[in-house]
Design brief:
The first copy, chain A, is α/β, with parallel strands linked by helices. Chain A has 16 helices and 16 strands. In chain A, the strands form four sheets. Chain A has an eight-stranded parallel beta sheet with strand order 4-14-13-12-11-10-6-5. The longest helix of chain A is centred in the last third of the chain and has 27 residues, at about 330-355. Chains A, B: Keywords: Glycosyltransferase, Metal-binding, Queuosine biosynthesis, Transferase, tRNA processing, Zinc.
Amino acid sequence: MTVPVRYELLHRCKDTAARRGRVHTPHGVIETPVFMPVGTQATVKTMAPWELSELGAKIILSNTYHLHLRPGEDIVKRGGGLHGFMNWSGAVLTDSGGFQVFSLSELRKITDEGVAFRSHIDGSPRFFSPESVMGIENALGADIIMQLDECPPYPASREYLRTSLDRTLAWAKRCKQAHARPDEQALFGIVQGGEHLDLRREAAEALVDLDLPGYAIGGLSVGEPKPLMYEVLAYTTPFLPADKPRYLMGVGSPDDLFEGVERGVDMFDCVLPTRIARNGTIFTSKGKLVLKNARYREDFSPIDEDCDCRVCKTFTRAYIRHLLKAEEVLGIRLTSYHNIHFLLDLMEKMRKSIEENRFLAFKREFYNSYGYTGQREDVLG
Amino acid sequence: MTVPVRYELLHRCKDTAARRGRVHTPHGVIETPVFMPVGTQATVKTMAPWELSELGAKIILSNTYHLHLRPGEDIVKRGGGLHGFMNWSGAVLTDSGGFQVFSLSELRKITDEGVAFRSHIDGSPRFFSPESVMGIENALGADIIMQLDECPPYPASREYLRTSLDRTLAWAKRCKQAHARPDEQALFGIVQGGEHLDLRREAAEALVDLDLPGYAIGGLSVGEPKPLMYEVLAYTTPFLPADKPRYLMGVGSPDDLFEGVERGVDMFDCVLPTRIARNGTIFTSKGKLVLKNARYREDFSPIDEDCDCRVCKTFTRAYIRHLLKAEEVLGIRLTSYHNIHFLLDLMEKMRKSIEENRFLAFKREFYNSYGYTGQREDVLG
């Protein structure tokens, strides 16, 4: 059997667990650590696929839950799978829909068999099982597909986390069995277990026993204090095999990216850069900036002096502020483009710093310039 | 004094008044007849300026009323005028704001001095006079600027049209006197007069006496029957000098473009292509198409088989329909791009047909293919 996704370790940073590698996929090679822009509904919000290419994105994420409800996986499959449907020649990862379904707290019911829920679009009753989700993800045709898992909220009782973890591990096995295209799509398992280190270890070991082509760490950045998240991460990654990619789900603030990379994570995704962009907030080398503020009304400098992206080379803060205030689509196009560029560029710099064994020094420089003090408000939108 | 805008006649079509020419401006040469995309708030909705260039747009229109209210002409001026502010290297035309202000029927009061109105954004009281509008348009810095005029609705009494026309003609004189940058920006007069041919003639002759660098025909496509519009147009254009550009304001459906060109018009503008695009309606060589319709759910053909624009070469109807249904910005980006391409391409074909003395034949071919039957519903969104 061909292995569709393979991890290649290039260099391990001195003094940290940060590692420089490559993930080989059927749709190209991904230099890691990598940030994956999120294209929930088969489009990274506001962006054309050629703009993602221009920014150097090699992999994007899309959402099984949303695509199942609209347009439906049958349409996507007939359109050539996600790659053909949205005309994206790079790699794609689909989540399992679990996170979205469990967020519908009023609308769903979980059993060991799966999860019953109602569509947020038309209220119609639906059911996700490991088997049905594999069917959907096989039809969507992403290079990397995620198992159905349960992502518990924070805080949750140990008892609940215990039961939930057993379910997630049982679902991993069922997903592996149901996966119909294992030589074309790589199934990743998801390590859950909340803040309990023993549960995390148990989850990692059980999933490793399944010999999957990659592993994700889920259930973090769901409300817990950052130091706790970093502790769980540092504890968990060593239980994951060094020859497989490691993916930290739903994480994408600059500080979390640094802290994740430092603890050995290879892949990240988050809606943060595009979501805050639509509110007019942009990342800059000197911290975040809320462009709608009146102080930028007559500011004819680029949005980030240190950035060489097309937006920063072309437009002024005053113009983009005007577009945002006037609710013109071009405004959120430009802020989205810049924010994705910012994170992709940041990852490229991290990769270089790992190669040069100066990752920690680079992190300190960045935090100093960014004005990061460890407060949650510093980095979230 | 340098003349900022000059018309060059290249060829007059046999059998019709259609003419092939060039308008020379401080920001490039415009091949005419031309359709000008509308960038109301210093952005053609959803489009980046490089996309307009890619589509071959050489001139766009922007709105004095909107830019005066937000961000204010002072900001635009400090940003380098409209060209610098929005980073558009082609030519720009600004309307006078008259049309928008008179559309605020509940909020404005007209006197010979000017028009008092309230901002639609914050309700603040404002006043437009010929002098203040020239001040604003001089600050915005477009290549072509329009006089303040009154655009009466249809139907209107002859008495009202008479009074209104006198005011518009008096305002034209005052605009010419107040215009502070006549060697950098070309002031165009606007012929009003409703459906009354004698008033149209009087207006045209009075404006020609002012020796302005160009003339517009206003007050058409405001609800009157199409045959009446074409009759007024056919009657009026011969009273406008052959060595100056002629601009038919607010007109941009394919049939109106053909009928206008046939009667000797050189320039057109309309929000139609971008407005219907945002509703998911696109122009095709075989007529308009409402992409949200269920029939396109599994239609994996391009939105227009006969179109060679980037959207038609890249995406399917099914994908764009999905984006529109999911309210994704990329959807209206793609339909806007295609619709602007469609009209710019149509004008290019008209120009070629004039050069080859087969304009009327081309019009017939297009109407046959488009399925145009002369009903208003055929062409409006």
